[in-house]
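In response to reviewer comment 3 from the previous cycle, which asked for concrete evidence that the modeling workflow produces usable outputs, we include below a single protein chain processed end to end. The sequence was submitted unchanged, and the resulting structure tokens are shown without manual editing.
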Amino acid sequence: TSGGYSLASGLQGADGKSIQTGLLGSSLNPASVTIAVWNLSSSTGSYNSHGAYAGDSSRITLNAPLNASTVRSDMFGDGADSLSHSFTPAGAFGLIAASRTATGHSNYVNGVKVGTSAAAVVGTLPALELYIGAENQNSAASSFTDCRIGGYVVALGLSDTEHVELYESIRDFNLAIGRA
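The workflow returned the following structure tokens.
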């Protein structure tokens, strides 16, 4: 972890602050992957990136949110699997997630699916470490988030029901420690 962190406040997003997960994108199953971030504050900026990027056909990125009211995710790039969806309320915080399964790619806000695509898997996952709080762009952190981060998940692709359960679990954890 680089930057300020405490249990009470989470990771304080800003330039120069990110979590280097140690997990390579290329170690994940390209047909079954989820990346999710719990924001403790709304964003005043843009990009708010998490993940890794090694070119348009080799990426796994989540812009959570891309701006005050849009979530965007890129799974493998090539433009064929980039999803952008508006959501309300603008500047919402909580769990923002993207999942890729064998049947498609979907974005979620607080457990609710806000958009989906049935695009086939295109390209590859990057052989770069995934970052949370920034995007690892060819081994350099960029597109930092200004949101406070209260947790993140990188997992197999989740179903709609599992996204609801993930949201409720992280919400309940944050409530229990007094930082929802």
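The chain has a mean pLDDT of 78. We consider this sufficient to address the reviewer's concern, and the full set will be provided in the supplementary archive.
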